[in-house]
């Protein structure tokens, strides 16, 4: 009953923080894709560079989330951007890079070499092979990496509470500090729902942009 009363009384706050949480994801995702996919394409041409890049991305991903938010605060403080949306968005971009880069690399490297050779034999340029063969054939694997990055980002964005970026972390951490468990449960339910719905919508998008012959039946 306390949970229902809390939701009814605070629905404006719940709506505001949910939209703020979605805003953090919406701002970070395009940058993650625009940075991660080209890097994945570039490193697919050289195994040594690919290994070094994946190791660097892996190291960045292993930095504890809260520590990375703190690092962003320190780095951005001199330009007066240490608190608010900016450090949270940059931290989310950094965490999203690894799955997107890795899956783009795997997607391109998994294409049968005979298909590439056939395309070259038909006189296609490197750009045409990339745009008309490599990327379309890699979409399912690349989208899988993007979905992993987004769902992971939904959870990590809760830490934005500590840098005053807003979001659903407010209900969890403020609820814990005040022993208001209806707040904590509200936050947990909303974050879980947001993660599931985001994953579902991205699967729908993946089906929409994937060729019929490449879909798993």
UniProtKB/TrEMBL annotation:
GO cellular component: plasma membrane
One GO-annotated biological process of the protein: glycine betaine transport
Keywords on record: Membrane, Transmembrane, Transmembrane helix, Transport
Compartment list: Cell membrane; Membrane
InterPro entries with a match to the protein in the record: ABC_transp_perm/SBD, MetI-like, MetI-like_sf
Name by which UniProt lists this protein: Osmoprotectant transport system permease protein
Main location class: membrane
The ABC transmembrane type-1 domain, residue ranges: 18-202
Membrane topology: Multi-pass membrane protein
Transmembrane regions listed in the UniProt entry: 24-44, 56-77, 89-108, 152-176, 183-203
Superkingdom: Bacteria
Recorded family membership: Belongs to the binding-protein-dependent transport system permease family.
Pfam families: BPD_transp_1
